[in-house]
Amino acid sequence: MDDSIEVPLPDPDQLPGLLRDSPHWITWFVERREDKINKVPCDRAGYTASMKLGHMTLADALKSALRLRKVHRAARYGVGIQFTDGCGIVGVDIDKAIADGERADHLAWFLETFPTWAEFSVSGTGVHQFFAGSFPGKRVAKIDGRKIEIFGGTGFIAVTGRVIPDTPGVMADGGPVVEMLTPFLGPVYQLPPARPVSVRSSGTS
Known about the structure:
The chain has 205 residues and is an alpha+beta fold. It has four helices and eleven strands, in the order αββαββββαβββββα.
């Protein structure tokens, strides 16, 4: 575990209603594997868990994350929205698009062309856009060598609540962004196999 990472927790009052009121929230923790930071879903006790199980309200997810932070004396626990068929939410993850406070051209174009509620990612170098609508599964679009992930029926996004200035306070219709990204989509995303043994996140001595 990496206790040096402080994961932001969202303020419910800053989230759009459709996102805030979803019953598909989960808790997760930061895990460093070699040089990569991974976000691992966990249950209320801090054990690794399937993203398909243990969905809860935002209020319960925040309570769980705060309790785990207190127990383990570490701010590596966060909350996220789990995408499921029929959830009514589409997420777009534009990673590695901010450097030294400057937005990459493609990110600026996305924010201007598809205005909707948006936030900074945990790392601060990426952006999450949230839309109302539907999309089957989770896919990756590659445009001019840039990777853009779109979520609708599986996967989760770690929600920070760090709202991007000058973006709308509501979630726009996701139809136009889905239509734009569809020609660039790669293979269908498959969930990785479950770990054979649940491993509890390490505590403090």
